[in-house]
Amino acid sequence: MRATRRRTCALLAASIAVAGLAAPVGISVAGRMGAGASTPAAPTPDPAGAECRTTVRGSRVVAYCHNPYPSTDRVQLHTECRRWWDIDADTAPVEVGPGRTVRIDDRCWKEVGAVWVTHRVRAPSTA
Length: 127
Known about the structure:
By secondary structure, this protein is of the alpha+beta class. The chain has one helix at 2-38, and strands spanning 51-57, 60-67, 72-81, 89-90, 94-96, 100-107, 112-122.
């Protein structure tokens, strides 16, 4: 009678362990299947924004931005100088129209620490 009890306890413990391990997998699969069926796919936005290349030579920075898309993009060059006493600078925003390329430049007194370009895309007008 003892061997039967031990066997029953061992089978019960193994069943609980398997159920505990399989439950999260089953919930995850059910969640993915339910989410795909009930929610429509999000619309993909149209591509927009200029592609910019920056070059640093010594203390001078040059950025070329080309916009191949039908929307207008306002780009702005930001320059962070390496020396604490050198003033960081931001250029005035420049509009890059569809199919256009612009050149933006800036400089530091000494070394350049970091350079980046920010974008603000404006949707094409429907006139």
